[in-house]
Amino acid sequence: MRIQVLTLFPELFERFVEIGLVGQACKSGAVTIEPTHLRTFAVNTHGQVDDSPSGGGSGMVLRPDAVVPAIEAAKAKDSAAKVVLFTPRGKPFTQKIAHQLADGVQKSGGGFIFICCRYEGIDERVVEDYVDLELSIGDYVLMGGEVPAMACIEAVTRLLPGVLGNPESIRQESFEGPLLEHPQYTKPAEFRGKKVPDVLLSGNHAEIEKWRKEQAMQSTLLRRPDLFIANNAPQCEVSVALIHHPVLNKQGEIITSSITNLDLHDIARSARTYGLERFYAVHPTRTLRRLSEKILEHWEVGYGASYNPNRSEALRHIAVVPDLDDVIVDIEARTGKLPKIITTSARDEAKGITFEQMQGRIYASNEPHLILLGTGWGLVPEIIERADYHVAPVKGHTNYNHLSVRAAAAIIFDRLIGKR
User: Fold this and answer.
1) Local structure of residue 342 (DSSP, 8 states)
2) What angle do CA 143, 145, 146 make, to 5 degrees?
3) Residue 241 and residue 324 in contact, taking contact as beta carbons nearer than 8 Å
4) Edge-to-edge strand list for the sheet holding 82-92
5) How far apart are CA 12 and CA 35, in angstroms?
6) Are residues 339 and 329 in contact, defined by beta-carbon separation less than 8 angstroms?
7) pLDDT in tens, 37-73
8) Partners of 83 in the beta sheet?
């Protein structure tokens, strides 16, 4: 793999290419790293390669009449090389991209031309006509592109055949799958009162592998839940209950609201889409429960079942019950565990946690969870006090906060268990 680095500080790479695995790869010929001083292509005898921004502003911008000749000279040495620019606005550099770059080198035979900017960046005309890929190594600003270039070189080089002594170590590392790597230990077996976990010293390879998988999952959920959530569904059961009594009216009085056909259909469809186990419609009045059951029968076993089987599939997950306690009893009977209750409302609650925090708790748990939604003007305080968790309200960027319960349900499902 040939990497040509266009930089104002080629001396930064002098030791980099001599030490560690990168140095060994360079000595073996697996990798060639060629820093080129951009001032070699200066626009005048003073070594100028940059100028002030058009339209005014601070800093200096690399000139196209200095950078483009440097790119063309590099292309003359390797016509198949991809031009990579390191910039804060680039695509986030990930292990997946590192694999793509390494695979691309092996398939095409072409290397890379890395452009390392300084100051305010590079003239946009260079980016538009000569750059194949823009990369960023994080949401922060460095003084130049040399450190990102080195990070990319290390990440890609170690994926090339023969660079690592044990190729298996790549498959077991963080970011090679949905989990971070498990914790590592070494000698001594005890250090300042802390011991290496007994299982790692047991010699039981099956138990060691099991422990490592469990630790990897716990570590990922604690440190980077986004990685796990992006690749997995929740391991626990999640259900939703729509409460019609006791709820509040506009004046803050306790009332009983009506079950509506729209609520049953739309929340059931959302619940089925996001994989909720059951949708409970909670109402104390037997007449309304029976009416709801008649509606469901039409879609489950009547004409509606054949007319719209997708709707039938969603409504089949509805259970109409008289009281919240009936919901809890049903979940405990099915799972053997009491559910963790989650509430939310349109009103600010000081003890509310964020959706991100709640999502992490759900994915880290093997206990059933129950989301409570209130009709009318929301759940009464007595029900909110029964909750294990209260999630902060769903909010937009305005002071208008009057979502229908159906719309709020879909948003809540997506934020808590939606695929990212």
Assistant:
1) E
2) 100
3) yes
4) 32-37, 2-7, 112-116, 82-92, 133-136
5) 9
6) no
7) 999 999 999 999 999 999 999 999 999 999 999 999 9
8) 113
Residue 28 CB partners (closer than 8 Å, separation 6+):
162
Task: Give the number of residues written for the chain.
Answer: 420
Where in 49-189 does DSSP place strands (E)? Answer: 50-51, 61-62, 82-92, 112-116, 133-136
**Interval 197-245: pLDDT, tens:** 999 999 999 999 999 999 998 888 778 878 878 777 888 999 999 999 9
Contacts for 265 with CB less than 8 Å, ≥ 6 apart: 311, 314, 315
Angle at 235 between CA 408 and CA 409, to 5 degrees: 5
β-pair type (50-51, 340-344): unpaired
Which residue did the predictor score with more confidence, 18 or 228? Answer: 18
Inter-axis angle of helices 95-108 and 146-157, nearest 10: 70
Residue 350 has pLDDT above 60, yes or no: no
Residue 323 has pLDDT above 90, yes or no: yes
CA 392 to CA 355: how far, in whole Å? Answer: 7
Please report which confidence band the pLDDT of residue 351 belongs to, taking 50, 70 and 90 as the band edges.
low
Report residue 301 as tokens.
Answer: 């076993």
Looking at residue 240, what DSSP letter applies? Answer: E
Q: At what angle do helices 405-417 and 355-363 cross, to 10 degrees?
A: 60
- What are the CA-CA distances from residue 75 to residues 68, 80, 129, 148, 161 (Å)? 10, 7, 14, 21, 25
What is residue 349's predicted lDDT score, i.e. its pLDDT?
A: 57
